[in-house]
Design brief:
This protein has about 240 residues and is α+β, with helices and mostly antiparallel strands. It is built from six helices and ten strands, in the order αβααβββββββββααα. Helix 4 crosses helix 6. The chain starts with 13 loop residues before the first helix and ends in a 10-residue tail after the last helix.
Length: about 240
């Protein structure tokens, strides 16, 4: 008997959770769901979503509720780390939760499963699933405000053969949830820690360079950098002195 601990979602009814886990997910995704992001708790913003999503490089279920009452979502195997192209694999699908759970699998026409771009000048910023790089053809799309979006009807020549999932083709977001479907492995935790360390170091180097241009200095401990890293941020080499 499949049993998911607690209730990981306010948008997905328990019977829909049971059906999804039994019929559409693999065994490792069937028991330990965790609510990673809830716009009611964390704020409705692309930035808030991104901060939570980048800590979750595993399969997820993203649920969207619009102001018309529709609840629909995206199952993605690759997590939601910002990229400059479509990504994902496995067996992604779109779903609609009301009045009954309906799942729409990929057609095999293309592999445009997941799209998440931020801060771009030449590409469309926002989050999407299915369709094409032309934003007019995204099947599910949230704009960078994370407050409005659109859904397009699919066909056998689209990524997913799904109807318009939202209340209207152009919709306003009421709430978003992101659910992590399995725990991270030890290797995934290790890689995530290495990536976070590199990100923190890069940000500290930028801060150091900016502050020193302004004539200010930091102690290395406060910056989270050792003396070699401080020197590298200044474009210097720190010599080793042998006594």
């Amino acid at each position: 008997e499949m049993c998911i601990r607690d209730r990981p979602s306010s948008l997905l009814p328990p019977e829909a959770i049971q059906l999804l886990a039994k019929k559409y997910l693999i065994r490792t995704e069937m028991k330990q769901w965790r609510l990673v992001y809830d716009s009611d708790r964390h704020g409705l913003s692309l930035h808030g979503f991104s901060l939570k999503a980048e800590q979750c490089p595993v399969p997820t279920l993203m649920l969207i509720q619009d102001t018309g009452g529709a609840v629909f979502g995206i199952y993605g195997s690759a997590g939601w780390s910002a990229s400059n192209r479509f990504f994902g694999g496995g067996n992604p699908f779109l779903l609609r939760c009301h009045p009954n759970l309906q799942v729409y699998r990929q057609t095999g026409h293309n592999a445009n499963f997941q799209y998440f771009v931020t801060g771009a000048t030449m590409l469309t910023n926002g989050l999407a699933a299915g369709g094409d790089l032309d934003p007019e053809w995204f099947q599910v799309y949230l704009d960078p405000s994370f407050r409005t979006g659109k859904c397009m009807q699919g066909s056998p020549r689209n990524t997913f053969e799904a109807p318009v999932l939202s209340s209207e083709p152009q919709f306003t977001v009421q709430r978003i949830e992101l659910i992590q479907l399995r725990p991270l492995t030890e290797l995934e935790v290790e890689r995530l820690g290495e990536r976070d360390s590199r990100s923190i170091l890069a940000k500290n180097k930028e801060a150091l360079a900016f502050q020193e241009m302004a004539g200010k200095t930091f102690h290395t401990k406060e910056m989270g950098m050792d003396e070699n890293e401080i020197a590298g941020a200044r474009g210097e080499e720190l010599s080793l002195i042998h006594i």
